[in-house]
Amino acid sequence: MNSKRNPGNLANPGNPVNPTPELTQQIRDVAYLTGEFKLRSGKISNFYWDKYRFESNPVLLSAIAKEMARRLPKGVDGLAGLELGGIPLATALSLQTGHPCYYVRKAPKDYGTCNLIEGGVPEGANLVVIEDVITTAGQVCASIKQMRAEGLVVEHVIAAIDRQAGGAERINALGCTFASVFTLAELAEIN
Q1: Which of 75, 109, 110, 159 has a Cα-to-Cα distance from 46 of 20 to 30 A?
Q2: Which range among 41-45, 114-118, 171-175 has the greatest average pLDDT?
Q3: Which long-range contacts (CB under 8 A, 24 or more apart) does 86-94 make?
Q4: What pLDDT is stored for residue 16 in this prediction?
Q5: In this predicted structure, what is the pLDDT of residue 189?
């Protein structure tokens, strides 16, 4: 496994790929908010990346999915979109790549099929986790453990934005590679 953040193609760590400066600027213009925000980790931040602002824009969503496709490792059976922000990204990526998309809940529902993972994922499938913004990766790591407990192979995570707050290291500690389309540092360089 790759032991550090791989900004490029997971299948070829020596071949980094970077989004265009125009796309980076568009994401910053649309999704970067300032103020006081409580993050999922409980930490307070003076800025926030509102992923729903780029995920609800079909042009930006498609462009990010295209960038994620460039980072997709070979030999995977499908995409695991995490509730809620990872789902539109995984769906858009599925449409671009033809890989089936599955939807991972934070907890199994208590009615109907009572599934943790929706979409009829085959036993033992090799899935890539798709997420929107990674800060400390608490939910991502919990979801990886849950999926593995269900008998699935999970070795890779791709995110739209890495806030560079320890999430990559936590993902790597689970034996997974990690790639993101953008890092906080890259987005901060754009004015």
Answers
A1: 159
A2: 171-175
A3: 86/129, 86/130, 86/131, 86/132, 88/55, 88/56, 88/61, 89/55, 89/61, 89/64, 89/65, 89/130, 89/131, 89/132, 89/160, 90/130, 92/61, 92/62, 92/64, 92/65, 93/65, 93/68, 93/69, 93/130
A4: 55
A5: 87
Sequence-ordered alpha helix ranges (H) in the chain: 21-31, 51-55, 58-71, 86-97, 138-149, 167-173, 184-189
Structure tokens at 187: 């987005």
SS3 content of the chain, % helix, strand, coil (to 5): 35, 25, 40
Residue 1 clears pLDDT 70, i.e. is over it? no
Measured at the CA of 180, the angle between CA 84 and CA 139, to 5 degrees, comes to 40
What pLDDT shows up at residue 39?
Answer: 85
Per-residue DSSP letter, 52: H
